[in-house]
User: What shape does this take?
Amino acid sequence: MATRDLRRLLGAAIVLIGAILLIAALLTPWYSYDYQFAGGTAGDRGTQNSTYFLGLSGANGTIHETCSGRGGCPSQTSYSSGGRSNTGSIAEISFALLFGGFGLGIAAGTIGVASRGRHNWTFSVVALAVLALVVATTAPALFAVALPNAFSKDLPQAGCGGRVTGPWSSFYGSETSSCSFVGFSGNWGPMIGWYLSLTASAVLGAGVIVLLLFRHDPAGPAPVSFSLGSTTSPEPS
Assistant: This one.
């Protein structure tokens, strides 16, 4: 009995760790798109590096940019200000899902640890942990599936020289193309925040498995009952 209580306590602690990893994922960059160009009649050369965080579309600092060459770019901006409102919608939804998973995971882990693995709390802890797992797993999956379509609405899909590949065509990749003696190269893909969210989901899943395996206490031995036979004296004739 005590061993199963300890294992339920361990499962709750693992869920708590997964929830903390979700916060780490919220605070780290989720995506990047970098490209370089060189050539042309003036011998232009430049780079632009964009890093994307989860958050509200209008929140400044959700996009970090550095660039060189002609023109310039803000060091920090928002999805709305940067003309990437569709991409920002995906960032907002993913943020909400991840934050929801964090809240559910914290609740499950805290209740499980505070109750010290007692069996009567296990159902509530398991239910919250499963919800946290589902919500947290949805965030990176949705981000990966929906982001290319959002980028295709926010950024030009085909520039000079037939640049038809980019974050609008796939979740990750690279390209090399040219146009009027100007060469382009770029790469794009997920960053540490996206991978951390997957790691957090895996940790949450491990905690859920432990909780499910040890959610019931083993059945005790069947009670032994004794019955005393009744004795009757013969009736007098």
Notes: Residues 101 and 135 are 5 Å apart (CA to CA). Helices lie at 2-27, 85-114, 122-154, 192-213. The chain has four helices and six strands. The chain has one domain: 2-213.
